[in-house]
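Worked problem 6 (solution included).
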Amino acid sequence: MAEPLCNAAVKKCKETMPQTPIFSSMLGSSCSGQVQPDMGERCVDPVYQDGNLVSGSLEALIERLVPTMDYYPDAKLKSFAAKIIQLLKEWTETFPYDFQDEKSMKELKEIAHRITQCDEENGTVKKIISQMTQNLLMALSARSQYQEIREKFRQPVTDKGTILKTKPQSTQKDILSVCCDPLVLAQQLTYIELERVSNIYPEDLMQIVSHMDSLDNHKCRGDVTKTYNLEAYDNWFNCLSMLVATEICRVVKKKQRTRMVEFFIDVARECFNIGNFNSMMAIISGMNLSPVARLKKTWSKVKTAKFDVLEHHMDPSSNFCNYRTALQGAAQRSQTANSNREKIVIPVFNLFIKDIYFLHKIHTNRLPNGQINFKKFWEISRQINDFLTWKQVECPFEKDKKIQSYLLTAPIYSEEALFIASFESEGPENHMEKDSWKTLRTTLLNRA
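Solution. The predicted structure is:
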């Protein structure tokens, strides 16, 4: 799968390169066997290093992608058609969004029609192409429905903060009343993570590269598919962080608040053991938010040894070296695992995206000699291929609807409300905090 992804990466970045009519080259004349793509000036052969393609011209890439009579010296017409079908099948399965516009779909159908004419005897090619087209349409439809559902339920962060709590603590439902076992909650978080990861596709990740190219070239990319799935996943991370902070800050009694902090520390540790680094990072981020971090009286009662270990793993120094070591260990475990439980690898998604970003920014699309820098695209494709492998793991944990409903629908405080709840739990300790507390109270009273 890595090679098609690399080729697709080049295709996505081709916008800034000379345009070559790939489709017309593939169509050629008719199915009489006289297929002679117009490749223009003969290109320089690709350059290999240790068996890997590292550079070459755009024309060389096209020759590598598109089989011709020259590329397959002993090829017959049916062999040629099989290669074209293989290319189209991998393309439509890996990057279906490339065919969402009417023009691309029309060209695909034209190619399919010409290839089908070459196999009128037994109809095998026709059946394969028909199935390929059907799968493509189903994939596009499924993703479109997911976007519509996500848009329908996209809600702003709720502000449930009040200046003075009006309800007795006993009547307020919290996460511990729904799930008091850190392992079980970590498993349910992992279930949610894998469900969301499954809706992220290669083209979503390649949109990062396309978007950066458009920004560099000061272009408006209105024609590019919006990265709904990436936004949804990023929103989940932020909501989980805010939920953790909300659950801690809204607890009135210090003893119970301390218990809540220690509970989330244990949940984060279980996430780490599972290989769910994204939820782990979200929980740590929530506990490091200022409204939570300022609760010194609470933290003084917390056994922080476990939390210190977690923060060590997520230490940002040396480009998150400790986290990357842990991620590599989880990836190696996944490769040799016999059960889905041991195969789980959920990276910190923001860091994963940044890695693709820096790979794209640090390395140029072309080498000084004008050839395409394949090494860059191999690196990007390797990152994406790892992610595709991890997202295919079937969740081994049974879904708990009650717990998941709470995680996904429980009220979340805004940053302003978090500070109010925090000050209510532990009063301001210095002039700066007193001023902030006074301003917040005045603001909410004016709203009322």
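Discussion: The two ends are 58 Å apart (CA to CA).
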